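Researcher: Hi, I'm a grad student and pretty new to this. My advisor asked me to get structures for two proteins we've been looking at. I'm not sure of the right format, so I'll just paste the first sequence and hope you can take it from there.
Model: That works fine. Here's the first sequence with its structure tokens right after it:
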Amino acid sequence: MKDVSKMMMLLGAGFLAGAVAGILFAPDKGEKTRDRIRSKASEFGEDIEKTYEDEIERLKGKIEKVKHQFSKKAADIVKDAEVNAN
């Protein structure tokens, strides 16, 4: 999964670089160009934020799953210890 995150970041960075390069070489006035760059950067930031939030939720789910598995194993160990003690 680490590779997927890396790939997403690289694709996002490539997209942003391409968008900025395209805007900079477009025949528009400076103010309009800056507005377009600002807009694209904002969109990119929103995409990054969404990806970050999705990953946080995915990790929270994994943590809950591991906690549940750990609790179950601990309960099984306690149960086995009680059976062996009798």
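Researcher: Oh nice, that was easy. Here's the second one.
Model: And its structure:
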Amino acid sequence: MEAEMLWTAALTAGLGLIGWVLKSAVDEMQRLNILLNKTREEMAKDYVTKADSTAVMGQIVARFDRIEEKIDRLMER
């Protein structure tokens, strides 16, 4: 009877320890997931996407082309 109680206590303690370790790992994963999402949000505020950058560069090039045409017309006069 005593060996059975010791075995039960050891299993209970072991399973409790395994459960605690798993819960700690899950909590850490959730914390990291939250931090990753916050990092993504912050990066979106500070950095420009490739599509936005391409659109802005297109507008700048178009304006430079217009300025160049105006300068060429002034030089011809």
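Researcher: Is there anything I should tell my advisor about the second?
Model: You could mention this: Residues 1-46 form one domain.
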